Amino acid sequence: MFHWLEKNPFFFAVGVFVVIAFAGLIEILPNFAEASRPVAGLKPYTVLELAGKNVYKKDNCIACHSQLIRPFKSETDRYGQYSLSGEYAYDRPFLWGSKRTGPDLHRVGNYRTTDWHENHMMDPKSVVPQSIMPAYKHMFTNLADIDTAYAEALTVKKLFATPYDAPNGTPLGTHDEAKAAALEEAKAIAADMKNQSVKDAVANGQIPEIVAIIAYMNRLK
Amino acid sequence: MQSNAALEYDYSVAKLFTFTTILFGIIGMLVGTLIAAQLAFPELNYLIGEYGTFSRLRPLHTDVVIYGFMLSGIWATFYYVGQRVLKVSMAESKFLMFMGKFHFYLYFVGALIAVITLLLGITQSKEYAEFEWPIDIVVVLIWVSWGISLFGLIGIRREKSLYISLWYYIAAFLGVAMLYLFNNMAVPTYFVSGGIGSVLHSVSMYSGTNDALVQWWFGHNAVGFVFTVAIIAQIYYFLPKESGQAVYSYKLSLLSFWGLMFVYLWAGSHHLIWSTVPDWMQTMGSIFSVVLILPSWGSAINMLLTMKGEWNQLTENPLIKLMVLASTFYMLSTIEGPIQSIKSVNAIAHFTDWIPGHVHDGVLGWVGFMTMAALYHMAPRIFKREIYSKKLIDVQFWIQTTGIVLYFTSMWIAGITQGMMWRAVDEYGNLMYSFIDTVAILHPYYTIRTVSAVLYFTGFLIFAYNMVKTMTVSKEISQEPTNRTPMAA
User: Fold this and answer.
1) Distance separating alpha carbons of residues B451 and B287, to the nearest angstrom
2) Shortest CA distance to B168 belongs to which of B228, B208, B245, B87?
3) Which of A177, B3, B30, B482 has its C-alpha lying 20 to 30 A from B465's C-alpha?
């Protein structure tokens, strides 16, 4: 049979494909029905949080930080309750990461504050003297992309029935309403910050990346 | 196979990909050396503003090495080996010649755009699948072009039986195509929202745990089909050819090939052990990773036994040395992976530096050495000049081998140290170390790793220098060598 296959490239290729596709069929597909159900009370990200999540992606924080607390006492002592599948239901893509050069962040909102993040992003060594993390000063001047975040929220609402504008869900509204809501949320965060240029920007209706990513960090609980 | 055929093979596409293998190798390893240094000396993060942080550069390193250096190497060897084992020249078909060149130029342009977008932070933030949807479309076109070349060449072949190397090239083509497509299923938000925000942005069709499953089914296997499958294609051609020895066992080749095809794809979920993925999938990933030792070692042993009775060549021919060491590192890496997939070991190893340590004994030792040996073997045959310096290959071999050993030993120690410290408790059951303690202690190992990166990169520069000299000033040869590659002392 193998000799015959080696003389018939078409059937050889089909054979290879069937053999390699088999595992995916058994292992990947069945889970799709199950795992994307949200845990009770989970709300979709606000537009500002989504914009912050996109900053997290843009600066590729997953290179060093996980968002997955494993079910060991040493991990739950350090980071809190172990992660549940349903908590990730609105994460597209998932941001578990694969390397902890820095600590896990899945529940960082429980034990770090706006003030802490502000200092840390500007100069990590100011809060953790031995830190090897780079400073992310550019987040204080780059503006967060609220439009794209709104487009993303609208897309997942339309295509994946993510419960925006649903009872007890996250309000989304029109593009203008969403922008206004994001700015209100940004103002509340900027009020807890001390960087004057960030405060000025928000007062002028602009939202620097640092405000968005802090909104996202504070949401991770 | 007929031995009297006086076919003139056309290596113009193989040459182009040889150049990019060297170019992307230099860029990818330079960035790798820099980010290794950044972990030991964080001040190095600020050389080029926001574009120079570890987090932005890390995908640049992985993608340039995987999709730049390795794919170029794979295609350079394919456009060389393919013609020879099928006994047909690219020059015989104008269409295939065009497709080959189209494949290369599209790839080169796509690679440059990809590098720019990664630096700008335009990314899906999925490991090894960072590229946003417009680049994904280009990637699909590049892949289809290769498919046309691959199956086109097979279509007009004279040698009816497909040689083992071709089995692996076909498998690499199909496997990566399937995985890449499924993992990059994303919806561009600009179009669905009616023209709001960035055109480049997209959102994954899978969420949370499902996305993780698809990502690591892809991450483990697509990269594996590049790192493993396509590199085995090379060693099955170049080691027998260079040594003049027949492949040790056809049956072992069969067993290893079909075994690898069946088992490989199951193992992806070993990246998700102790995660929120269902337990049975984690267990499957674990078990199949251990089973994977059989086909992996099958290939490696088949290659080592091919040298049976001819081990003296190891001292005489540096290319044999490179390939035998490549096989050996393949064996090391494919026993190490299964060990890390055992649940209790994974609990310590996961998230630590042992993982990059594991990856690098595979890629530096196995992929890097095999690719360089293949290009050295090809150079006199496609540029009609002997290798510029045998001595330089020897020097390079020892510098790089030292680099690899330092790399994985330092990362083993770093990974296990950190994994143990994360879980260490005092007599009352309280955690003994704050997170930053477990980072600070790694400084010496990160420094050693930086040294190892400099060594390996230096060796690669020697390789590049030797290749350029071979192409330009080395002594011309009038006849194609049969086996052993001619080289000046």
Assistant:
1) 36
2) B228
3) B482
**Does B1 have pLDDT greater than 50?**
no
How far the first Cα of chain A sits from its last, in Å, is 57
Structural domain span for residue B451: 307-489
Q: What is the pLDDT of residues B62-111, one digit of tens each?
A: 999 999 999 999 999 999 999 999 999 999 999 999 999 999 999 999 99
What letter does residue B226 receive in the DSSP assignment?
I
Name the stretches of chain A with pLDDT < 50.
none
Q: Which of B125, B178, B430 sits opposite A21 (nearest CB)?
A: B178
Same domain, B461 and B327: yes
Look up residue B441 and give its DSSP letter: T
Contacts of A36 in chain B (CB under 8 A): 206-210
B268 within domain boundaries: no
Kindly provide the residue ranges of all beta strands, DSSP E only, lying in B113-248, ordered along the sequence: 186-188, 202-204
Say if CB B417 and CB B444 are below 8 A apart. no
Per-residue DSSP letter, B67: I
Q: How far is A74 from chain B (nearest CA, A)?
A: 5
B432's tokens: 């003994």
The mean per-residue pLDDT over the stretch B236-255 comes to 96
Domain match, B484 and B351 both: yes
| CB within 8 Å: A62 and B281 | no
Once rounded to an integer, what is the mean pLDDT over residues B443-471?
98
Is residue B422 less than 8 Å (CB to CB) from chain A?
Answer: yes
Interface membership of B306 toward A (CB under 8 Å) = no
CA distance A177 to A154: 13
CA A87 vs. chain centroid, Å, equals: 12
Q: Is B55 on the interface with A (CB under 8 A)?
A: yes
Report the number of distinct structural domains present in chain B: 2
CATH code for the domain of B61: 1.20.210.10
- Please indicate whether, in this complex, the C-beta atoms of A98 and B127 are within 8 angstroms of each other: yes
Q: Is B182 on the interface with A (CB under 8 A)?
A: yes
Q: Does residue B295 lie in a domain region? A: no
Read off the tokens for B67.
């999709």
pTM over 0.90: yes
- Residue B413: is it exposed, middle or buried by C-beta count within 10 angstroms (0-12/13-18/19+)? middle
Q: What is the pLDDT of residue A26?
A: 83
Cβ distance B193 to A155 less than 8 Å, yes or no, reads: yes
**What letter represents residue B195's amino acid?**
G
Helix (H, G, I), strand (E, B) or coil at B239: helix
The C-alpha atoms of residue B319 and residue B375 are separated, in whole angstroms, by: 10
**What number is the average pLDDT over the span B110-132?**
96
Q: Fill in the DSSP letter of residue B68.
A: I
Angle at B57 between CA B275 and CA A126, to 5 degrees: 80
Of B171, B288, B351, the CB nearest to A99: B351
**Minimal C-alpha gap between B362 and chain A (Å):** 18
Per-residue pLDDT at B329 exceeds 90? yes
Q: Are A39 and B209 in contact (CB under 8 A)?
A: no
Residue B240, preceding peptide bond in cis (omega within 30° of 0): no
What is the rounded CA–CA span in Å between residue B81 and residue B147? 15
Q: What is the pLDDT of residues A180-200, one digit of tens each?
A: 999 999 999 999 999 999 999
Is B291 inside any structural domain?
A: no
Interface touch A16/B196, C-beta < 8 Å? no
Indicate the residue of A88, A131, A154 with minimum beta-carbon distance to B207.
Answer: A88
Same domain, B312 and B177: no
- Is the CB of residue B210 less than 8 Å away from at least one CB of chain A? yes
Considering the domain boundaries, does residue B223 fall inside one? no
